[in-house]
Amino acid sequence: MFATIDTMSLYQRLFYFYYSLLRRFTAGRALFSKPWPRLLVLDFSYEGVSGHHHALNKLLTSAGKEAGWHVHVLANRGIAPPLIDSHTDPIFTRGTYGAVGKPKQARKKLRRTVRSFFKDMLEARLDRIPANTAILIHTASAPHILATVGFLRLAKRQCPTNIYLMLPPDFDAAPPAQAEQRRQYEHAFRLAAGHPHIRFFCENRLLKAAYEGLGCKHIALLDLPCRLPDTAFERPQTDRTSFLFIGDPRPEKGLQLILDTLPLLEPLAGRITIKLLLTHPEKSSAVAPLLEGRSFVELVAKPFFSEAEYFQALGQTDCVLLPYDPQAYLLKNSNIVSEAFGCGTPVIVPPGPNSLSDYCTATSASAHVEMKTHSPEGLAEAVGVFLTQAPDLQSKASLLRRQVIESRAPRHFIERIAHLTA
Fold first, then answer.
1. Which CA distances in Å does 114 have to 39, 143, 291, 376?
2. Do 19-222 and 241-407 agree at the fold level?
3. Across the chain, what does the average pLDDT equal?
């Protein structure tokens, strides 16, 4: 576990404070001294090891090294000091996340974020980037698009490089802020339209369609990389079919739906086992009493699961339960679908339209069961369908495994960026 500001001694705090200042003000000088092709990642929300930012940046760094690229990450100034290294510098003052608020507040936030991001890009000397450098801005919302357009206008011929902006599922504002949020994106896309050095991409077809509806006409589909196991897992031979739910028991993940479905699955108790592997034990304490008398359900709660434990659980179960809230996952992805397929395991997903069912449909093999309704009855029916088709679904998932591993490999992502940059 990394040290936090609360656990550091006074000397540690002073050291990291002055070290981060030095890194920040020398970043622009040191970044471009190496001659080989490079990828510069602007991640203004990268502050710690939680969430997808840390994992993604480390994957890109290691994949770039394998491909002969130097990958450098410019992070938030609030990044945990031990994460600052030869590949990471603290630059940005404002992150991505936070409530949009009312329209007037949203406009103020837009102006502050645009000014801040523009200023930070100049301080990092990004106007001096050599031509063989690609810039990746992931989780780029409307203000970052506007700041990037302004920055490129100022840099003109001094920045002959492509900037790739990954568009996030940024449509969770509550009315009446939704209209203001849409207006901001429409304005940003109008200004960015036709710019020779701006490239947009996103992760799924539904998100692509949503942004095209706001005026962004040229969006590439590009899967973000994720680490998947190289070897296949052996499933234990038992007389019961195993189902797995793993992860944070947040409401949108569908754990409550699974609990509500258990009475309907009682007739199948002799044929199935359901394993609930939950993080955040403090959230999970209320689950145990609901499982009393249900021997076909196993609960394991611990603060976190190691990568080996996680993939072993995915690879050794017969089916992964993903009864996620289809509205919450209408546009945003969840890597667990790719991770399950990468382990050769079928999944049960919510009824479409949502990004999970869309990803399953877009793959060449249908190694999944889609619920007809997002309800206890819908989930119970999907479990029954899986039981009747289990051998066929597992065979399709095994065939799909290598394809998913290749498509989500960090090396593949770097190669796509390299191809687009050439």
1. 23, 5, 50, 45
2. yes
3. 85
